[in-house]
Design a protein that fits this description.
The termini are close together. The chain has two helices and five strands; from the N terminus they run βααββββ. It is elongated. The protein has 112 residues and is of the alpha+beta class. It has a three-stranded mixed beta sheet with strand order 1-3-4, with no helix packed on it. A two-stranded antiparallel sheet has the order 2-5. The longest helix has 14 residues.
Length: 112
């Protein structure tokens, strides 16, 4: 089971502008002293823009619950939920594993 962008940078306020993002990536790399005429770096601004556009576009997620018709009252545990996100301070990726446990009430959470 995977949950993406558990705590991520807020979604874009408007549509992503790929050309502008590529220019910004190019400007950043040049400001950092990168030689964009180097064959290995020539396409890096495009790759950066595409990567960040993908990482900053959260996947839709809707929590589903079901009536607890069977009257379950014991601890429900879902383990090893893989997630990934971006650090909103550095825009660097991180990943991890989460574990969720809860005591069901009138409804049960669909975690599969």
């Amino acid at each position: 089971m995977t949950i993406s962008h558990l705590h991520s940078v807020a979604p874009a306020a408007g549509p992503i502008d790929p050309a502008r993002a590529q220019r910004a990536a190019r400007d950043l790399l040049l400001a950092l002293g990168a030689d964009l005429t180097d064959e290995n770096l020539r396409e890096t601004p495009r790759r950066m823009a595409e990567t960040y556009a993908e990482l900053l576009t959260p996947l839709p997620f809707t929590a589903t619950t079901f009536p607890n018709d069977e009257g379950y009252d014991e601890l429900v545990v879902a383990r090893d939920i893989h997630f990934h996100s971006l650090c909103e301070h550095h825009l660097l990726p991180f990943h991890g594993v989460a574990h969720v446990g809860y005591l069901p009430g009138e409804r049960i959470v669909g975690l599969s």
